[in-house]
Design brief:
InterPro entries: Acyl_CoA_acyltransferase, GNAT_dom, MshD_Acetyltransferase. One of its GO terms (molecular function) is acyltransferase activity, transferring groups other than amino-acyl groups. Keywords: Transferase. The protein has 6 helices and 8 strands. 33% of the residues are buried. It is an alpha+beta fold. Strands 1, 2, 3, 4, 5, 6, 7 and 8 form an 8-stranded mixed sheet that branches. Helix content is 27%, strand content 28%. The protein has a single domain, classed as 3-Layer(aba) Sandwich (Aminopeptidase), CATH 3.40.630.30. A hairpin with a 5-residue loop joins strand 3 and strand 4. The structure holds coenzyme A. The site of coenzyme A has 18 residues, from helix 2, strand 4, helix 4 and helix 5.
Length: 195
Amino acid sequence: MATVLDSVRAFFAHAAFTIDQENAGDIVARERLLDHVMGEARFRKSSEKLRRNRLPAEGLALVARDADGHVIGTVLLWNVEAGVDADGNAVPALLLGPLAVDCAHEGKGIGGALMRAAITEARDRGHGAVLLVGDPEYYERFGFFADEVQHLVMPGPFERRRFLALELKEGWLDGAAGVLVASGRRLSAERRKAA
Ligand SMILES: CC(C)(COP(=O)(O)OP(=O)(O)OC[C@H]1O[C@@H](n2cnc3c(N)ncnc32)[C@H](O)[C@@H]1OP(=O)(O)O)[C@@H](O)C(=O)NCCC(=O)NCCS
């Protein structure tokens, strides 16, 4: 991870922000940012069913920091099973979201930097595909399209045109069909109580 983030840092050396691994001390600031940007509605999304009481995928909680180290952007990815393949085997994948940038810092390339760092890190960690629910007008620039998830469904209401995927390994989602299921590490009872 250090290598990936070093190269992302070097690329954005001129910028007024850096992309970093989230640490335990960032969680409160991240949640505050998400409340501010997305409000309570974020807890009613179908994606939330795949995140509730789970930890993000290993090494795939990233933040953007301003020059003072404050969290001004966040992206999280989650382990899921993207249905089953033609042989009936579960298809491991990642669900991306939420992605959010502090309103005061929108349009500076922070969302894009978070997306590119997350995709690079997911690929380096050997993942096969990333799925998300979001505006195609934004996510297509990162290679996300609806084609490969035609036979997959979210575990709740979702707009088919906004259900997108990026294969990190060619053909990873071939034949994948069924409902997405959470498969990530569970939050401990203590962490659930604190949340
Ligand atoms: C979407 C979001 C993460 C983009 O962050 P950002 O740092 O402003 O993004 P970037 O600076 O990398 O890119 C900005 C570009 O994306 C475009 N863009 C932003 N949201 C868009 C959307 N929903 N649809 C189409 N284009 C969008 C902007 O118009 C801008 O275009 P330009 O480069 O042609 O001017 C941020 O606006 C945000 O937090 N929105 C609220 C939360 C949200 O909707 N998250 C996504 C769903 S999980």
